[in-house]
Amino acid sequence: MAVREEVYGFFIPSVTLMGIGSHKEIPNKIKALGSKKPLLVTDKGITAVGITQQIVDLMKANGMDCIVYDETIPNPTDKNVHAGVEVYKKNKCDSLITLGGGSSHDCGKGVGLVVANGGKIHDFEGVDKSTKPMPPYIAVNTTAGTASEMTRFCIITDTSRKVKMAIVDWRVTPTIAIDDPLLMMGMPPALTAATGMDALTHAVEAYVSTIATPMTDACAEKAIKLIFQFLRRAVANGQDIEAREGMCYAQYLAGMAFNNASLGHVHAMAHQLGGFYDLPHGECNAILLPHVEQFNLIARVERFAEMATWMGENIEGLSPRAAAEKALVAIRQLSADVGIPAGLIELGKRYGKDVKAEDIPTMTSNAQKDACGLTNPRRPKDSDVMAIYQAAL
């Protein structure tokens, strides 16, 4: 809550469709936006499992054309964005559909920014750098984690600097978001776990953010409760539609929280691991989360104690500090239960990457410049960030 004159915003899409079968409304909503030829931004994985064709067929059945760009990679790059811009222009598209998880949505947002404003995607790094509105935009989600289908965040890797650019711009908020748990049924356990822990990170960081409000607090609280109720079930059985729907709501609520309260140093540091080693964002967050929040604990003791109860921990008779520590215990246990690697070196080996201690100073320097760190509840020195990276190895 503000202790001085300060203005808070609350950003969400104009319309959100949720529930089983909601993706079938895509053609109607494209028409409602006055569009006829959208560019569908997605990735090869979504195409391989048939979801891309499913959407294309749905559009054709309603007499509409749809151009597919499915070259997005897990950590979308400036090259991805600029290639997508060329496809958009060449085919004279008039709108955007993004289909997938955070990577597809971020890439599509980047395409929309450049199409509308000109220049290069690098021009928009930072906060609210655009001056013109995006094309009409529908974001269709297939994972339960990033909430990029409803946020004003766009994370793009600058391939020359090996840095993830944090673009925070109210204009990239999708016009319409669609979250259909049917499209999430095919997510494998590892991806379910990684995206779910990403959502948890969003909720936790938003709840302890320096600009949290009662509105974001309410969203974060419900998100945390739902994640601890449903994530293990969704990982254990991907066909559990109740668990899928529960995680669908959880990740969206977490998105509402961080889209408005912002994030913290977990994301600031995870972005460097993604940019430097091309490691998956959700798992980087999951590994860093308990380490960063251990550092943050003294700044938000009461809030961590509250979170412990939402995570199912019994804090009766405990001091506020001991109760707060229970939240970190619960986070570590959930992470272990869903199969997240214990440390960054193990994570690197899983993906054929060599995570090295000698890279920590460079990543620390970049993390300290990341916009996400501005709302961290405790301001870390470089030595603190390096110590956290070292502990997470």
Helical content (DSSP H or I, runs of 4+): 40-55%
- The general outline is globular
**Major beta sheet, specifics?**
6 strands, parallel
Distance between the termini: 35 Å
Structural class: alpha/beta
How large a portion of the residues is in β-strands, by DSSP E?
5-15%
Order of helices and strands: EHEHHEHEHEEEEEHHHHHHHHHH
Rg (CA only)? 20 Å
Question: Average pLDDT value?
Answer: 95
Secondary structure: elements and pairs:
Elements lengths: L14 E4 L7 H7 L5 E6 H5 L2 H11 L5 E6 L5 H13 L4 E6 L1 H16 L8 E2 L9 E5 L11 E6 L4 E6 L7 E4 L9 H19 L6 H23 L4 H21 L3 H13 L3 H16 L4 H10 L9 H18 L6 H7 L9 H8 L14 H11 L1
Parallel strand pairs: 1-9, 2-3, 2-4, 4-6, 5-8, 6-9
Antiparallel strand pairs: 7-8
Helix pairs in contact: 4-5, 6-7, 6-8, 6-10, 7-8, 9-10, 9-14, 10-12, 10-15, 11-12, 14-15
Structure explained in plain terms:
This protein has helices spanning 26-32, 44-48, 51-61, 78-90, 102-117, 189-207, 214-236, 241-261, 265-277, 281-296, 301-310, 320-337, 344-350, 360-367, 382-392; strands at 15-18, 38-43, 67-72, 95-100, 126-127, 137-141, 153-158, 163-168, 176-179. The chain has 393 residues and is of the alpha/beta class. The chain has a 6-stranded parallel beta sheet, sandwiched between helices. It has a 3-stranded mixed beta sheet with strand order 5-8-7. A hairpin with a 4-residue loop joins strand 7 and strand 8 (163-168). Helix 14 packs across helix 15 (382-392). The protein is globular. The relative contact order is 0.11.
